[in-house]
Amino acid sequence: MTLKSNGPRSGEPAVRHFDWVVNCTGLDPGTAWRSNPFLNALADRGWLRLDPTGIGVHVGSHCEALDAAGNPQPTLRAVGPPTAGVFGDPLGVPFISAQVRRILPDVLRTLDC
To answer: Cross-referenced InterPro entries, in alphabetical order (predicted)?
Structure first.
């Protein structure tokens, strides 16, 4: 992942590269990602889409984001509140930790660990 932005102090353009990005957002209406530059950019590029209920991110059974065409993106995952429209009520640490435990083997296979 490459992030291009203006530096916080100088205003000069800055480019940074990341192997992992973790975005810890809570439960917002599905369209709220339009005010989040990171999620908005992913949606604009077709890397993710709203779930059919319009509540959050449309994901597959292993929490992989579904792109604009409905194809799973194994390197882009969503867990917890953003998956409410697919899995029901994913609020609270017990549910989220169970969700992470369930998808972890698939994530590790994706990473070739």
So the answer is: L-asp_N-monooxygenase_NS-form
